[in-house]
């Protein structure tokens, strides 16, 4: 009986170790990165975050910019209840770095059908790299509840 | 072959006064669930593009209803049920009554807290969802109410510890009865886990909503929230594990295999508290290294869960074989399926198993990026809590309410039908949400009024609506059976809890008695919490409470 129990527990442990290795492999070898420390935007008492953003690079110039051949940067500000810009145009194969933040409450930034998925918090900068290999129109939505009209907060990414 | 029972065996019965307090906890929990599932029906149909939620009285928006659904079902019901049920298993495990004042205090703080929060939500001053991420801002009664709901659990914990001390004094050198050990471990785990939420609400959000603080630090509050937001799942689950380990084996005609294995599983849950960062995989401001560490710790949670699967399945197998089941899986069909209490909980276990598998997907952060905040997540946790936990509550109620009322269950056949209907409903509902989520359908979104839609979401939306409606009908049947049992069940004499025996008794020598010394495990857990959370929290000092709120969104 004891043996049965031990065998079962060892098998569980083995399965978990395999899972862990798969996770490590997928994040290192496949180069999947999560949003992490990308800087903060400080706002003093009495200042409006929205105003501060207008003077803080890169958020003083929202939109897409080619920073090297084939490499782009897309700067986005989320604010109740819209993205600025609400359309992002990219060529097929473009490697793009999304740099985004929120000007008020917590928002989400999700491009349906991709793994571009980040939370946008006021005062925090979120960054994520992605490569669009298929042409098409992608839905870009806020997927964190942000108030009354949250369900209207959407835009699109056009890849051609 | 069985040697020891998990509870003081001489047939102790609680004084009627304490049974009444327990009964009010349970009934209040179910009353709140009734309101919760009415909202749930509206949400499920809203996904299917059928508008009923906006025609409900009082409910002005989808999000107001969703806030009520989340707070009532996930916070109030679960607390009320745990406070009542675990008070009972603690007292019965020790064979002694609990402290009256503490038990009463727990009930009253829970009632007052819930009513305060309910006021804010029904008055449409708190449509912030049950996660209430600031700077969304609610009326102060919402925060105060939630704080009181948490405080009520601390009273139960205190009552348990008082009983433990008294019992130890009277029983020197004996092992803590397993039923009492599991019950206390549940609340000790929650004492540590609830600190994050308590600090978030009492130190930051409540003063802020009263105008005493200039603003909030959204990142810090989010981190505190998820510190509790992960292990709150254990708080939902462990009372159910108490039933699965301590009662179900007996109900199914079997015995529990190992006392030691059971205690180890509960202790592992006390140790594995600080993994809340896995809810923040796609948050900014948290390092990649920490996220990986927490992902690894998260996989460790499957260990106590698999241990539970092993123990419970083995107990059911013994039961099934004793009842004549043969072969590799023949025993499964011979467990007492005609007992609605057993059937409901075994179905809950199956849902839970499926939920656990989908949880592995959430936990792997590379996959998490494709489903974070999509409907996949709600599909996943309706398997876990919406079915694994809620259907177990119903199964437990099928012996608990007859026990408390001294009446027979009103209709076993209807109860059996109810359990299967709920299970089928959840399967369709969760499958719909998960399929939609994989196709990118967001959660917490008023899909009926959304400015976007995709053809790939069509069938998932319909499945969500159909499955949710079946769950709703089944839940209403459940309430009907409960009410009929209370008013019209056949009167019986006082019965006892169906507590089980173990194959291997708890040894009184060797290393095992140390398992009962919860202080060691608490200390280890706190050290782990500080190691994981300390640096992140310290990084927020000096505090910058400058983010302004968005009131009653
Ligand atoms: C008749 C049964 C039920 C139905 C039809 C139902 C339906 C739903 C739906 C459709 C959602 C998703 C809403 C959205 O993301 O926009 C939801 C969310 C949720 N449900 Fe249920 N549900 C039911 C029972 C339960 C039970 C029994 C529990 C817990 C004990 C529960 C806990 C939750 C929680 C915690 C959420 C998340 C709320 C949020 O994201 O803010 N539900 N429910
Ligand atoms: Cu939003
Ligand atoms: Cu978690």
Your description of this structure?
The complex is a heterodimer of chains A (160) and B (553). Chain A is built from two helices and ten strands; from the N terminus they run H-H-E-E-E-E-E-E-E-E-E-E. Chain A has helices at residues 2-28, 49-54; strands at residues 63-68, 71-79, 82-84, 87-90, 95-102, 107-111, 117-120, 126-131, 136-141, 154-159. The radius of gyration of chain B is 23 Å and the shape is globular. Chain B contains 19 helices and five strands. The longest helix of chain B is centred in the N-terminal third of the chain and has 33 residues, at 62-94. The mean pLDDT of chain B is 93. Chain B has a single domain (13-552), classed as Cytochrome C Oxidase, Chain A (Up-down Bundle). By secondary structure, chain B is mainly α. The chains are: A alpha+beta (160), B mainly alpha (553). At the A-B interface, helix 1 and strand 7 of A face helix 7, helix 11, helix 12 and helix 15 of B.
Number of distinct helices of chain A: 2
Number of strands of chain A: 10
Beta-strand portion of chain B reads under 5%
How many structural domains can be distinguished in the coordinates of chain A?
2
CATH topology of the largest domain in chain A: Immunoglobulin-like
Would you tell me the structural class of the helices and strands of chain A?
alpha+beta
Structural class of chain B: mainly alpha
Distance between the termini of chain A: 63 Å
Q: In this structure, how is the largest beta sheet of chain B organized? A: 3 strands, mixed
Average pLDDT of chain A = 87
Largest sheet: number of strands, sense, barrel closure of chain A: 5 strands, mixed
CATH class assignment of chain B = Mainly Alpha
Q: Rg of chain B, please?
A: 23 Å
CATH topology label of chain B? Cytochrome C Oxidase, Chain A
């Amino acid at each position: 009986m004891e043996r049965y129990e031990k065998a079962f527990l060892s098998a569980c442990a083995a399965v978990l170790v395999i899972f862990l290795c798969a996770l490590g492999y997928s994040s290192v070898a496949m180069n999947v990165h999560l949003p992490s420390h990308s800087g903060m935007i400080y706002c003093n008492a009495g200042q409006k975050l929205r105003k501060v953003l207008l003077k803080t690079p890169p958020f003083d110039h929202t939109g897409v910019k080619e920073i090297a051949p084939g490499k782009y940067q897309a700067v986005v500000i989320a604010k109740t209840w819209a993205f600025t810009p609400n359309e992002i145009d990219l060529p097929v194969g473009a490697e793009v770095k999304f740099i985004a933040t929120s000007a008020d409450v917590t928002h989400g930034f999700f491009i349906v059908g991709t793994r571009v998925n980040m939370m946008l918090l006021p005062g925090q900068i979120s960054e994520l790299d992605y490569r669009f290999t298929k042409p098409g129109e992608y839905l870009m939505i806020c997927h964190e509840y942000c108030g009354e009209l949250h369900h209207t907060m959407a835009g699109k990414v056009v890849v051609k | 072959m069985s040697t020891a029972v998990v509870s003081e065996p001489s047939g102790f019965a609680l004084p009627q006064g304490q049974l009444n307090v327990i009964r009010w906890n349970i009934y209040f929990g179910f009353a709140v669930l009734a309101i919760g599932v009415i909202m749930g029906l509206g949400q499920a149909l809203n996904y299917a593009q059928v508008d009923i939620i906006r025609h409900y009285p009082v409910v002005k928006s989808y999000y107001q209803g969703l806030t009520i659904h989340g707070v009532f079902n996930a916070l109030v019901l679960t607390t009320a049920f745990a406070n009542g049920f675990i008070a009972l298993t603690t007292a019965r495990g020790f064979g002694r009554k609990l402290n009256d004042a503490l038990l009463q205090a727990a009930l009253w703080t829970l009632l007052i807290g819930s009513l305060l929060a309910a006021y804010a939500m029904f008055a449409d001053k708190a449509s912030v969802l049950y996660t209430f991420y600031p700077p969304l801002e609610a009326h102060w009664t919402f925060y105060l109410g939630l704080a009181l709901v948490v405080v009520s659990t601390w009273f139960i914990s205190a009552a348990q510890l008082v009983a433990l001390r008294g019992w130890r004094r009277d029983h020197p050198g004996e092992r803590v009865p397993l039923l009492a050990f599991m019950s206390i471990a549940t609340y000790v785990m929650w004492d540590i886990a609830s600190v994050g939420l308590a600090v978030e609400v009492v130190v930051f959000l409540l003063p802020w909503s009263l105008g005493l603080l200039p603003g909030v630090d959204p990142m810090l509050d989010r981190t505190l929230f998820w510190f509790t937001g992960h292990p709150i799942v254990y708080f939902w689950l462990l009372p159910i594990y108490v039933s699965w380990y301590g009662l179900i084996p007996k109900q199914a005609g079997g015995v529990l295999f190992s006392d030691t294995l059971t205690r180890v599983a509960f202790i592992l849950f006390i140790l594995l508290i600080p993994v809340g960062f896995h809810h923040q995989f796609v948050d900014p401001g948290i390092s990649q290294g920490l996220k990986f560490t927490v992902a690894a710790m998260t996989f460790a949670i499957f260990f106590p869960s698999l241990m539970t699967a092993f123990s419970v399945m083995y107990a059911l197998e013994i039961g099934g074989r004793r009842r004549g089941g043969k072969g590799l899986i023949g025993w499964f069909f011979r467990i007492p399926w005609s007992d609605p209490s057993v059937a409901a909980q075994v179905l809950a276990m199956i849902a839970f198993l499926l939920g656990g598998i989908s949880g592995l997907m959430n936990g792997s952060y590379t996959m998490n990026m494709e489903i974070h905040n999509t409907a996949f997540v709600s599909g996943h946790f309706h398997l876990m809590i919406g079915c694994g936990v809620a259907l177990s509550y119903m199964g437990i109620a099928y012996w608990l309410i007859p026990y408390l009322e001294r009446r027979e269950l009103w209709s076993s056949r209807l109860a059996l039908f109810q359990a299967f209907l709920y299970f089928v409903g959840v399967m369709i509902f969760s499958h719909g949400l998960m399929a939609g989520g994989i196709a990118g359908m967001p959660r917490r979104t008023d899909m009926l009024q959304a400015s976007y839609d995709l053809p790939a979401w069509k069938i998932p939306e319909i499945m969500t609506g159909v499955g949710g409606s079946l769950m709703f009908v089944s839940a209403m049947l459940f309430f009907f059976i409960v009410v009929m049992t209370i008013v019209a069940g056949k009167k019986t004499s006082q019965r006892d809890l169906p507590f089980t025996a173990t194959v291997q008794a708890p040894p009184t020598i060797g290393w095992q008695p140390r398992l009962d010394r919860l202080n060691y495990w608490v200390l280890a857990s706190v050290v782990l919490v500080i190691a994981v959370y300390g640096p992140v929290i310290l990084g927020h000092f000096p505090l910058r409470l400058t983010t302004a709120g968005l009131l009653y969104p």
